[in-house]
Design brief:
The protein is built from 53 helices and seven strands.
């Protein structure tokens, strides 16, 4: 529904004029000299604008552009309408408007008719308004006539059409309207005819049901209104200027007063009043604020914003602001965005912002809530609007309003975070009072010192201490100069506070050190933190120079200050960890060029002291990383640092060997002090071995002895075992790196192979440890090493590493899988206590979940990279539904990657996972399966989810889906019923689960699967209709769906035996039954290919059933590759122990079928007619596929090995199913249908023949 609001342009202008002039002193500049804004000088008499007399039109006219009989001609070649000229572009706009004004003066009806047709053509309407219609019809009748001729389905709407000539059509359209009003502003718009006609037309079109009419008319009306606002503004300015001149002249003494000038002003008074009234009466414009189209609403709001900014005296009032406020609740983000843009243009001016106090108080809450808008662009503009509001007045936004914006500096969306950072900077850091003017520029007592403290306070109050990098990135664009004042930061950390100054607390100093590190990282790396950027962008030359300058400043400052900071905070873990990361951003050349070697020595001493005092892993790894950054062979300081590092490692290794000997020689339980010493030394060696090659110290034997002793005694502290395994892991990796580079000795590969295999066995033994932390460490290392030493180690030309390939045996795979099932797939309630017995809080639960996700991801990598068997993933895939919230994304990605490796094996694994769940359900609920239980429904839902993962392209997954059905059928009939013969097999309900995958089978494969299913069925099974047999019935029905077309083709040949087609079919049968052996083999060759990939598979059988095969000759040369899939269902020769003996005499089958039909004949008599009617309807629906056949095709069917079809036919009354099909045409030439190379006997079911085929 369209809500139309009418606005009078000159009503506002008139009210504004009334406030300046009395009723007899309205003044105007009709001559046009003061057309520009701000020009107030009276015009000389007799001067006319170019638009009025069109004398200047030739100057604006495009070359060769003239007017012929109301149309525009270019180079004299063709007549062009206004629409065609505007479509040409901006260059012809000025001249065409001048020509139109000239035509209007000569014949205004003809000119207005051109303008009306212009608006109609711009709407995409092919209709034309002729002169007769314009003279004798109302606007509503004209619009109705155009609506009847409008074709909305054509898509020929100029504003949305593609192509180079339409890209700028909207701009040209708007320019045309603006130029038209500007050129007519001195006389034509006051004639009470042109504006009345145009506005009346646009008013009618804006209320049309045709979307294009509404959009075009609304846009035209908005631009027309904007142009009139410009005219009104110029008029207001000229009125003010002339009024001042008039007052000045009247205030002169009589002797000096110019009577002729006063007479001229009085003469203009009547003309100004007349023009003002005309503008008041003729400037009615409609705009639509509740149109169904968001673009129309957005255009209205955009133009209202222009009016309020352009002519604030007339439009910046509640009458217009309320529409902007209401539209901020629009459902479309595009409209809300235009509202915010309109308000931003007003708040940019302090004068206009002060006049919006009432509006701000009314709609402030809505603007604040829009900072959390679902559209990111809207949220960004809402924050920017609040920043402008903050600049206009500090008192408008409350503390709660500001806090709702503050936390957005930690947003992952960088534009929102940067906007919030600008708001925060304006609020907290941009205020400078008179007392701050005398402060020093740098240092603790400077203004930046207090601002940096404010930043630290804000960071601590936000309670997001791990997100300092995000805060720095948010403030970087607006406050980088403040953040890069490292001199002040160092002063705040090292200098003593002045008398009366409050010193920073330990917590505040820790936060300051973290912020300082984040600023250094941002300055040197020049890219946002993780999660805020799509990647590293290319830096400009200016940015690169700034980066180099910042890095030089950082090195010069912190090369001197860092040793002092480490000395002061040597025992503080958090501060030291952050401070030790600073050297990796240094420009190490400055140590030499700047003569700073003594500061380097001081830094190395402090690092030695830090590692000596600490045993925390983070601190030790930070020390190791710092040595790695400083030990760069490209710089001259390498020798100095390398010597210090070697001395440190020598001391650590000697101490470890000494302690290890004492530790291992002790009998009984290890001493606590000795254990601590061994653990501390081992943690330091492991931390340094992570970044440095310690191969020359030969640490493998010591660590292996330590691990072996732990297994034998069982009393080794868990942390010693964990770090010993980690250190051994590093030893093997560094050894592998040397062997891969070719820098090792001849026997190193043999040594590595022995060490690697011994360590694999050691970790496998530790998987059975009673300590969870030890088992997790062993499992993680095993996953990493199995990936590293897999078959992929030989890729990229490294075939010489083939002896190092390690393939996990079945026992290792089983133990790793059991670890995953025991440690990962557990409920939260089972893991509600931490290792120390204390209940976990929410944070620890999240951390534990993250750890379990990493363990699962590590194992899934082994499946994806084909390190372990794909079928081991069955135990993981079956957990998909139960643990969907925790691990659903990991399992789904693993499933996707596995399918890319091997589609068939992946499908078999999915089937295996469903079978495992089914067996678990049987073990819990017993043999009597209730398909309404939650357990069964859960398995069925999981199968539906698995089915969806195969996608829509059935040809790509054809073989995989067929294999899944084959395995499922074999599983369903694998175990006989524990209740004895006559009862359904134990796993028969599994067919109901398997039916979820039937929709993924193509039509040909459904028949083949159905044939394979029939081979497992006995005669009694086919005749059963009890509830316990419903899974079999529903599964058969799911396989029979989709083959109706070929069913009708076969049945038409059978049922019309008295017709000519019947005779032809019998002759064909006689000839086809005498096929040579070679042709028979070629016909059945497709049945022996892709299931024979498992020649040794033992398929359980319930009973061999006679099956029907087609006798229609198939050309093997025309068979498609995918048609060879039929062989997937080749039956093995061995028989299941529980399989009943097959029937030996076919006459028994015939007799049983005949008896069955006779017994049910009376009950079926009433249903025959109903089935017949349904069948005829179904045939008529399916006959459309055969409309193009030229000759009827009859396909007779026969028994596969004996000519027993007539025996079966004796018990069938085909006359009751006389199916009459229309003649088919040229079926063999129908290339869009896949040829049927499968046995059509599977589609002859009970619903067609009224008897069972078994």
């Amino acid at each position: 529904e369209v809500c139309v609001i009418s606005v009078m342009t000159s009503s506002a202008v008139h009210r504004e004029a009334e406030s300046h002039l009395s009723s007899d002193t309205d003044l105007e500049d009709p001559d046009g000299k003061n057309a520009k804004t701000g020009k107030g000088t009276a015009a000389k008499k007799g001067k006319k604008a170019t638009g009025d007399k069109a004398k200047g039109g030739a100057a604006w006219r495009a070359p060769g552009l003239g007017r012929v009989n109301g149309h525009y001609q270019e180079n004299g070649m063709e007549n062009m309408t206004l629409f065609e000229v505007v479509k040409m572009g901006k260059s012809a706009t000025q001249s065409v408007v001048d020509d139109w004004i000239e035509a209007y003066k000569n014949n205004r009806d003809h000119a207005l008719l051109d303008l009306i047709n212009f608006f109609i053509q711009c709407s995409g309407c092919k209709g034309v308004c002729v002169g007769e219609m314009f003279r004798h019809m109302q606007n509503s009748e004209i619009i109705r006539k155009m609506t009847e001729e409008f074709d909305e389905d054509s898509g020929d709407y100029p504003f949305t059409m593609s192509g180079p000539q339409w890209k700028k059509f909207r701009i040209s359209f708007c320019d045309f309207i603006a130029v038209l009003v500007r050129q007519c502003q001195y006389s034509i718009i006051y004639d009470e005819y042109m504006m009345d006609t145009v506005i009346s037309l646009l008013t009618g079109l804006s209320d049309s049901q045709v979307r294009a009419f509404r959009h075009t008319s609304t846009l035209a009306a908005m631009k027309l209104m904007t142009a009139l606002v410009n005219v009104a503004l110029n008029l207001s300015i000229n009125m003010d200027n002339t009024q001042r001149q008039y007052d000045a002249e009247r205030n002169k003494v009589v002797a000096k007063r110019a009577s002729d000038k006063l007479e001229l002003l009085l003469q203009k008074r009547k003309e100004v009043r007349r023009n003002t009234l005309c503008l008041y009466c003729n400037s009615e414009v409609l705009f639509v604020l509740a149109d169904a189209i968001a673009e129309i609403r957005a255009s209205c709001i955009e133009e209202i914003g222009v009016w309020m900014k352009l002519y604030s005296d007339a439009f910046l009032n509640d009458s217009y602001l309320k529409y902007v406020g209401w539209t901020m609740h629009d459902k479309q983000g595009e409209v809300r965005l235009k509202c915010l843009g309109a308000l931003q243009s007003l708040f940019h001016s302090r004068e206009l912002g002060a006049r919006l106090e009432l509006f701000t108080s009314r709609f402030k809450d809505r603007i604040v809530s829009m900072t959390l808008d679902k559209e990111y662009d809207v949220a960004v503009q809402a924050i920017k609007l609040l920043t402008l509001v903050l600049q206009c007045s500090d008192e408008v936004l409350t503390a709660e309003d500001c806090e709702s914006v503050y936390h957005l500096v930690y947003s992952a969306h960088r534009p929102i975070a940067v906007s919030a950072g600008e708001f925060l900077y304006k609020k907290l850091f941009s205020h400078q009072g008179p007392e701050d003017e005398g402060l020093p520029r740098r240092g603790r007592q400077s203004l930046n010192g207090s601002l940096i403290k404010t930043t630290v306070f804000f960071f601590l109050e936000s309670e997001l201490h791990e997100h300092g990098a995000y805060l720095v990135d948010s403030l970087w664009e607006c406050g980088s100069e403040l953040l890069k004042d490292w001199e002040t930061m160092i002063s705040l950390l090292l200098d003593e506070p002045a008398p009366g100054e409050e010193a920073l607390t330990d917590r505040q100093e820790t936060a300051l050190v973290e912020i300082m590190l984040c600023v250094i990282r941002q300055a040197c790396e020049c890219h946002p933190p993780v999660g805020r950027g799509t990647g590293k962008r290319v830096l400009s030359a200016k940015e690169k120079k700034t980066q180099l300058d910042d890095r030089t400043r950082i090195t010069e400052m912190f090369a001197v200050a860092l040793p002092l900071l480490l000395s002061k905070y040597c025992v503080d873990i958090d501060k030291v960890t952050n401070l030790l990361q600073i050297p990796k951003y240094f420009d190490l050349d400055i140590y030499t060029t700047g003569r700073l070697e003594k500061h380097l020595d001081a830094l190395l001493r402090q690092i030695w002291e830090v590692q000596d005092k600490h045993t925390d892993t983070e601190v030790l790894e930070a020390c190791s990383t710092t040595y790695h950054s400083l030990c760069n062979e490209e710089f001259t300081i390498f020798n100095r640092v390398n010597i210090t590092r070697s001395q440190l490692l020598d001391e650590l290794v000697d101490k470890f060997n000494r302690l290890l000997e004492d530790f291992l020689q002790e009998g009984g339980e290890p001493d606590e002090d000795d254990s601590y010493q061994v653990l501390a030394t081992l943690k330091k060696i492991s931390a340094f071995h992570n970044a440095h090659d310690l191969s020359k110290w030969d640490l493998f034997n010591g660590n292996y002895r330590l691990l072996n002793t732990g297994l034998q005694n069982g009393d080794m502290p868990e942390q010693i075992v964990i770090h010993a395994m980690q250190c051994t892991h590093y030893i093997i990796l560094w050894h592998l790196a040397k062997v891969s580079e070719g820098s090792s000795l001849k026997g190193d590969m043999v040594t590595l192979r022995k060490q690697m295999r011994a360590f694999f066995l050691m970790c496998q033994r530790y998987l059975n440890s009673i300590n969870n932390a030890v088992k997790e460490q062993a499992f993680t290392i095993l996953c990493d090493l199995l990936l590293i030493f897999s078959h992929q180690i030989m890729s990229s030309g490294r075939e010489q590493l083939e002896p190092l390939v390690y393939t996990p045996d079945s026992s290792l795979q089983a133990e790793m899988l059991n670890f995953i099932l025991d440690q990962v797939f557990i409920d939260q309630d089972d893991d509600n206590n931490s290792t120390d017995g204390q209940p976990d809080d929410e944070a620890s639960k999240i951390e534990d979940l993250h750890k379990r996700r990493n363990l699962l991801a590590s194992y899934c990598k082994l499946i994806i990279y084909n390190v372990v068997e794909i079928n081991t993933g069955a135990d993981i895939f079956k957990q998909y539904m139960r643990y969907y919230n925790d691990y659903g994304d990991i399992i789904k990605e693993t499933l996707s990657k596995t399918r890319q490796i091997d589609k068939v094996q992946c499908a078999k694994t999915l089937g295996l996972s469903l079978q495992m769940l089914f067996n678990e359900m049987l073990s819990e609920l017993g043999f009597n399966v209730d398909r309404s239980t939650s357990a069964f429904c859960g398995i069925k839902e999981l199968s539906r989810r698995f089915s969806l993962t195969f996608g829509l392209d059935q040809m790509k997954t054809r073989e995989a889906i067929a294999m899944l059905h084959k395995d499922g059928i074999e599983f369903a009939f694998k175990e006989p019923s524990p209740q004895g013969p006559g009862s359904p097999p134990l796993n028969l309900a599994f067919l109901d689960i398997l039916s979820e995958f039937s929709s993924k089978l193509i039509r040909q494969d459904k028949r083949t699967v159905h044939m394979y299913l029939e081979r497992f069925m006995t005669v009694q099974m086919a005749l059963q209709r009890e509830d316990c047999w419903l899974p079999l019935i529903s599964y058969r029905n799911s396989l029979q769906a989709g083959g109706d077309d070929d069913t009708m083709s076969v049945m038409s040949g059978i049922s019309s035996r008295g017709s000519t087609r019947s005779k032809k079919s019998k002759q064909a049968t006689a000839s086809k039954r005498k096929l040579p052996e070679a042709e028979e083999n070629s016909c059945s060759s497709s049945d022996a290919v892709w299931m024979n990939r498992e020649p040794n598979a033992q398929t359980p059988l319930m009973m061999h059933s006679p099956h029907l095969t087609s006798t229609v000759l198939r050309d093997p040369k025309k068979m498609r590759p995918e048609d060879s899939y039929t062989a997937a269902f080749a039956m093995p020769t061995e028989q299941h122990p529980h399989q009943p003996a097959p029937l030996q005499q076919h006459t028994q089958v015939t007799w049983m079928l005949t008896q069955r039909q006779q017994a049910e004949a009376r009950q079926q008599q009433e249903r025959v007619s109903v089935q017949y009617a349904k069948m005829r309807n179904h045939i008529r629906r399916g006959s459309g596929l055969m409309e193009d056949d030229e000759e009827p095709i009859v396909e007779d069917v026969m028994m596969s090995s004996e000519d027993r079809l007539e025996d079966i036919n004796e018990g069938m009354d085909f006359d009751t199913m006389d199916i009459d099909l229309p003649a088919s045409k040229n079926r063999r030439e129908r290339t869009e249908l896949k040829p049927d190379f499968f046995d059509p006997s599977s589609i002859m079911d009970d619903s067609v023949l009224n008897v069972s085929m078994f």
